[in-house]
Amino acid sequence: MDPARLSLNQITVNTLGLPEALDACVRHDVGAIALWRDKIAAVGLDRAVELVAASGVRVSSVCRGGMFTTGDPADVLADNRRAVDEAAALGADALVLVCGPLTDHDLAGARARVRDGIAALLPHALAAGVPLAIEPLHPMMITERSVVVSLRQALDLCDDLGEGVGVVVDAYHVWWDPDLDAQLARARGRVRGYHVSDWLPRTSDLLLDRGMVGEGVIDLPRLSAAVAATGYDGPVEVEVLSSRWWAEDPDEVVRTARKRFEEFV
Amino acid sequence: MDPARLSLNQITVNTLGLPEALDACVRHDVGAIALWRDKIAAVGLDRAVELVAASGVRVSSVCRGGMFTTGDPADVLADNRRAVDEAAALGADALVLVCGPLTDHDLAGARARVRDGIAALLPHALAAGVPLAIEPLHPMMITERSVVVSLRQALDLCDDLGEGVGVVVDAYHVWWDPDLDAQLARARGRVRGYHVSDWLPRTSDLLLDRGMVGEGVIDLPRLSAAVAATGYDGPVEVEVLSSRWWAEDPDEVVRTARKRFEEFV
User: What are the C-alpha distances in Å from B75 to residues A234, B79, B114, B230, B254?
Assistant: First the structure.
């Protein structure tokens, strides 16, 4: 894919702080970045806004709101409103919602809390002009991160909740789904982000063993074409949660991500 | 659930050979067992048939045929026919098919090979009177075991292939699926086996870290009721692939499985 569409999801270079990650984008001619809230908090929102403005780098998303099933709903809502405000201040294209995790035996109940949590947040997001983007995660992450595990389920939530809520398509999370083509056809106009990494045979960790683009078995060109057919033409985030890649020199990681992005995505 | 329906899937006591696993069933009043082909081969089929007959234990399934994507299709077919013959000789209720794995970037192609592989095997299975049972596995096992990852996909294959092909519902593999209730409603009369274990938060291994029944977060009573509503009233296998449980005394494992089965399934 044209590297002009590349966005560096900050967690791909997780050892860097926000200023250093922005510098890496500028150094490697990466036009967009996805920012994580812990890294924003580490410098403070105002300083983060200044740094982003000075860098000229676009913020493709803020990661993440959600986590509707943990703690008191009022506290969760308040924290999610702050996430919306951060995304608005940073001019982010969307706030990514990670919708879980499951903490007990009541999966249907957890899913209902997610639905209600998004519904409660939506008026604030609409007022702030920040699109909410539900990211279905791989079913193996259900007790760690998300009870929304398929694109179909995420789109059903969008249908239910109406304007202001879309989806993120993350290759790692959805590539296995026999229903994927049909759901992408249904997603037209509702894709708010596209994330790429790769699935490694003999994955050794459910959270932190993703492959760099091109290292694994996902047919990314095919998926990219299907996402393009939904009308999505915004930034494409390279998001590699990998303790192996985190141990590498971040400059080498960004260089590799850029090269693989051109070659494989 | 009534322990009269309990079947011990042999891999739950993986350190035991076939004779010792049958003895454990008799000792703990477990009326059925699921046999693995490597354990059958270790004693020889004829001896396995004698041992099963002498024990009075019913064979709920033979694990496993399938693996249609690895190696030459003619060799795979020949091996699957032998698996059918073993299941027939042992009087097994079904031959479980594990349908994969993915070995390259062509997921649609692998799924087509699985379909064609089952179609090629089916006449032999029908002639032998052995029901084939497609077991959808958890999507995280796609590069290790199976490109059939959901009950919907397995039932679509059944629709396509016709008489003689059903499904296994394994709680560990399908519990996460938002589409599960709808697909179980569709599965009426086509369930050939029901397997139980549990999903552990912080799962540490994609293949060998299942929980014993009652250790995890799966709502087994609810799932058992939905499986019962399909009309399935045969043996229910406790199948725990767990390096942790394999390190325990097998008698203690079977005792625990039986107790938890009564309490939680």
Answer: 48, 6, 14, 35, 36
In chain A, how many domains are there?
1
- The ipTM is 0.97
Rounded CA gap, A120 and A132, in Å? 12
In tens, the pLDDT along A32-78 reads 999 999 999 999 999 999 999 999 999 999 999 999 999 999 999 99
Q: Which residues of A touch B177 (CB under 8 A)?
A: 139, 149-150
Element (H, E) at B18: helix B18-27
Asked if the Cβ–Cβ distance from A206 to B206 is below 8 Å, we say yes
CA A104 to chain centroid: 25
- Quote the domain boundaries for residue A223: 3-264
Query: Which of A140, A146, A204 has the highest number of chain B CBs within 10 A, making it the mutation to test binding with B?
Result: A140
User: At B40, which CATH number?
Assistant: 3.20.20.150
Query: B177–A105: do the CB atoms touch at under 8 Å?
Result: no
* Distance to chain A for B59, nearest Cα, Å: 31
Low-confidence ranges of chain B (pLDDT < 50): none
Of A111, A138, A143, the CB nearest to B201: A143
d(CA B21, CA B254): 10
